[in-house]
Predict the structure.
Amino acid sequence: MVEHDTTLVAAVVVLAAVLPACRGRRPAACADDVYVNGRIRTVDGSPGIVEAMAIREGRFLAVGGGKAVLEHRCDSTRVHDLGGRAVIPGLIDSHGHVLSLGLESTMLDLRGIRSPAEVASLVAERAKGSEEGAWILGRGWDQTLWEGGEFPDRGILDGAAPRNPVLLRRVDGHAAWVNTRALEAGGVGRDTPDPEGGRILRAEGGEPSGILLDAAADEIMTKVPKPTPGQKAEAIERAGRRCLASGLTMVHDAGVDRDTLEVLRSLAGEGKLPMRVYAMLSWDDPERDAVLSGGRVEVGGRLWLRAVKLVADGALGSRGASLLEPYADDPGNSGILVMDPGDLREAIESIVERGFQPAVHAIGDRAVRNVLDIYEDVLRERPGQDLRLRIEHAQVVALEDIPRIGRLGVIASMQPTHATSDMRWAEDRLGPVRIEGAYAGRKMMAGGAAIAAGSDFPVEPPDPLFGIHAALTREDRTGSPRGGWRPGERMTIDEALRSFTIEGARASFTEAILGSIEAGKLADFVVLEDDIFSMEAARIHEARVAMTVVGGKVAYSR
């Protein structure tokens, strides 16, 4: 917990001279805190912008005009002057990876590296301080930034770290670049067949090149030492502080195993979980049946387990997303189905039968169609049930399938910054026709779909204001391209804010208590140093968070 902002919290403005105390009567309910003189966007409330709010026991007690809200002021009430600042509901990232974000500091950060040689230099430097046999881990490389845009090979890493196994995850997490020591540790060689749901890229002669797509990396991953529960707890708390500083008060954690769930449960029970977490159990966790048999989890309004994460295909950047037709820049390749459609159907039906929400990673148009076909059957068999079926990413969708998402009421869990990160090469992958259904936020909404926005951190930074900026402008944070990439898919600021607030709450069945500033809901909100509603849209990514409040308590301040 950081120290409170002296202008907003520590120096609470009692305003006794101008705001008379309640004399002669006691309010029906005394507020613990009253915030006045703000521009408060309620999102789902009426009216949409108010100037004051009162909080009692962690919930909004009253929201509205200053005079009406101050009727809940008693002698013990703390009154805070917002100084005209903009206030929005606590922001919700509907698809992130909390533990991975927290563990980043223990790995090599390869984001933005411009060549394989630069990566090798970082690996060599880490190897100098590592014991022989110790794993060197990293994440964030992106071959599309390199001259030629080709995948690297293991020989570069062999030269950099001959005594250590090396495993470097691509920025999207769906490809691993490894050296010979790592291949040997996982028993991957010339005669190792491609596993179901994965692919071993090979050099001439059939030897593994050092690039493993999706499930092909799984066996090697089992050889990497796992963090202890204590290390996981530290990483989750570290990630939580990072999220709070960016205005996030809730994260949908897209894929946790049983051990990580227990750490989250322990932190929540001890009051140490920094933000709220809506956890999705990983379908491929060996302990999944034991967890699901225990039913849904809810701990103190901080942790929920109600969803299960499945993975239908790979990622577009590594050409593993499953497409209906081959890649435009790789005509012999249509991507990877990580799960057989029949197995995926059985899994989704099992999840729904147990009272959980399926959330399926589907990036390519073939994977999305497979999921929609299954979801349509599931909904037909259960008329009237509130299932809130989710597609995670929905990145490339056949144009005829976009209206199905809205018609079926499927939640599209999308990440606006993916569009601005991938725009350099997306049309090369897909061609000029198929790109029309890619990263298509406006078409999704026009078809009636609800978009719950996120970042997919640590693939992208966790900052939701980056996502709002990308959704509004379709520009990256350098201002490119001017006017936006495929600008017809832009959102309005109100739509973008809803996608990071109330739609995220609805996607997690928590809209009765979260997602907007309304009396009775949990008092999660963000005070902005810069007003994103009046500033130039191209600069929204520069806006600063002054304060983040969770359950009425200041969790972060500048």
User: Anything to note?
Assistant: The first strand starts at residue 33 and ends at 36.
